[in-house]
Specification:
It is a single chain. Helices cover 66% and strands 0% of the residues. The protein is an all-alpha fold and 177 residues long. The longest helix is centred in the middle third of the chain and has 21 residues.
Length: 177
């Protein structure tokens, strides 16, 4: 995970807050914070395969992560798997909706609707979360999945604009490098 003081994390937070609060009228700091943290957590590409099977192999397919959740022996593991499915599907449907079809093309994910699975998984995670503080935001992510995915698509547009404009730090390096 990228630290909250890292420039990339601050960029994600600023763009997410601006987009969600100004453009979409979503004044829910915990929801907006969760979404901006989601962006930062998936910045290192290895985070996409954070859930591992019993042999320690990373799982990159929603269908396999769901199977892992169903076979888990404890609620904490089931919650972790469902939260990851919610995060994974929100990330891809929001930022890279065109890639979703390619991701799922040669796998069991081709039979899944990522938005429906994301909503369902966030709901299930909200019922399993150990912390009472996490449950409400997970429930709201389930209820407002489509809005959050749309918000992420708007954040992506802002990131694309920054890239075109050549956004950089004072040392000349790209902000997200």
């Amino acid at each position: 995970m990228i630290s909250e003081s890292h420039p990339l994390h601050r960029l994600f937070r600023g763009l997410t807050e601006s987009t969600f609060m100004t453009e979409l009228g979503v004044g829910d700091p915990s929801l907006v914070g969760y979404v901006s943290n989601l962006l930062a957590s998936f910045a290192p590409t290895q985070a996409i395969g954070r859930i591992r099977d019993r042999q320690g192999r990373p799982l990159f397919e929603v269908a396999r992560i769901l199977a892992e959740a169903e076979s888990a022996e404890d609620e904490e593991r089931r919650c972790e798997c469902h939260r990851h499915v919610g995060d994974f599907t929100l990330f891809w449907t929001g930022l890279y909706p065109d890639a979703v079809k390619r991701l799922a093309a040669d796998s069991a994910d081709g039979l899944l609707d990522y938005q429906q699975q994301g909503k369902r998984s966030y709901y299930l995670a909200s019922t399993l979360a150990g912390s009472q503080d996490e449950r409400p935001v997970l429930r709201r992510l389930s209820e407002h999945f489509e809005l959050c995915a749309f918000g992420l698509s708007r954040v992506r547009q802002e990131l694309d604009k920054l890239e075109v404009e050549g956004a950089s730090r004072p040392d000349g390096r790209a902000i997200w490098a």
